[in-house]
Amino acid sequence: MARYLGGREADVRLFPPFRFDVRDERLWKGTEELKVRRKPFAILKYLTANPRHLVTQKELVEAVWGKIAMSESLLRTHVSELRRLLGDGVIETVVGRGYRFLLDVQVEKQVVSPSKAVEVRALAADLIGRSKEMDALRQVFETALNQKRQIVNRRSYKACSGNLRFPSFAG
Predict the structure, then answer these.
(1) Range of the domain at 154
(2) What is the pTM of this model?
(3) Per residue in 93-148, pLDDT tens?
């Protein structure tokens, strides 16, 4: 359900007209950001991870509060708050058993920019005797533009994998 983005998992769930950003803890209705308190947010996170399925009260309490004793009225209060934010017909109460999130939930797709050709500036063309190094740098840069991981040896500008030991430049 999640995608990797900038060192952290991105988890954005869509159920129009809502956009639910789990990682950044934000809920949007169109262009308006809705303020959601911590526990209702955790409840919505769990329900949207299990759309159209019955989520028992016990299961929801364990997911949000852990294994502690608490009143069912507290859970009902937080679900009521979510209903006020989301509107009618989004969360169904299954009397005596639990809740069901009624909307279809989709995961936002990562937008991948198309590969760009690498252009060498005129200044780089004037570097006499460095065409091999410039070609190696161009290849490394093109690989990076295609969002492929690589380790580059700074001595030879060759992409490689595995453990590298760089010489010390202390003098």
Answers:
(1) 115-171
(2) 0.60
(3) 999 999 999 999 999 876 545 555 556 555 555 567 777 777 777 777 777 777 67
The separation between the first and the last C-alpha atoms of the chain, rounded to the nearest angstrom, is 50
Residues 42 and 89 in one domain: yes
Q: Are residues 123 and 100 in the same domain?
A: no
Q: Which long-range contacts (CB under 8 A, 24 or more apart) does 13-22 make?
A: 13/48, 13/105, 13/106, 13/107, 13/108, 14/105, 14/106, 14/107, 14/108, 15/48, 15/51, 15/90, 15/103, 15/104, 15/105, 15/106, 18/86, 19/108, 20/44, 20/45, 20/48
- CA–CA separation, 10 and 134 (whole Å): 35
Contacts of 15 (CB under 8 A, 6+ apart): 48, 51, 90, 103, 104, 105, 106
Question: What are the backbone angles phi and psi of residue 19, rounded to the nearest 5°?
Answer: -130, 120
8 CB-near residues (< 8 Å, 6+ apart): 23
